[in-house]
Amino acid sequence: MNTPKRLSTSEMQVTSIRLESELKERLRDLSGDQGYQILIRKVLWDYVERHGDDRFRRCLPSEIRLTTPATAQREESCAITGQTIAPQESMLLGWTNLGEWVPLSLHSLSAPALSRCSEALEV
User: Which end of the chain is more exposed for a tag (fewer CB within 10 A), N or C?
Assistant: First the structure.
């Protein structure tokens, strides 16, 4: 998951939301020193990334901690290159440093694929 870089609060928009008192207190307890607003932003970004369009969910090769072979059960998009992975096509599942499984094409971690990936990110 690629949560956008943390902006200063002056770069954010103010939004008002009504929360039950108990919910707000429990969020404060869960958030510890980081504060409940940061926790709420993290939860909202996690939701957007999980329920948004998978074609835009990307990660860097350096974020992959391990891989395991897999077979796509539906059309997937490689989290590094954006390459389409067809149903029943061999693929990899990558475990990220954020503790998430992401779909990877078989050659997405090879040198040529990484070169194409970095060129695409520069555009």
Answer: C
CA distances (Å), 33 to each of 37, 44, 101, in order?
A: 11, 19, 28
Q: What is the rounded distance in angstroms from the CA atom of residue 17 to the CA atom of residue 19?
A: 6
**Same domain as 117, residue 62:** yes
CB-based contact 103:76 (threshold 8 Å): yes
54-89: pLDDT as tens digits: 555 678 898 899 999 999 999 999 999 889 999 999
> 87 by DSSP, 3-state: which?
coil
Residue 12 lies in a domain: no
pLDDT tens digits, one per residue of 21-66:
999 999 999 998 888 888 898 888 877 776 666 555 678 898 899 9
106 and 71 within one domain = yes
CA quadruple 70, 98, 2, 15: dihedral sign: positive
Query: Reduced to 3 DSSP states, what percent helix, strand and coil does the chain have, rounded to the nearest 5?
Result: 40, 20, 40
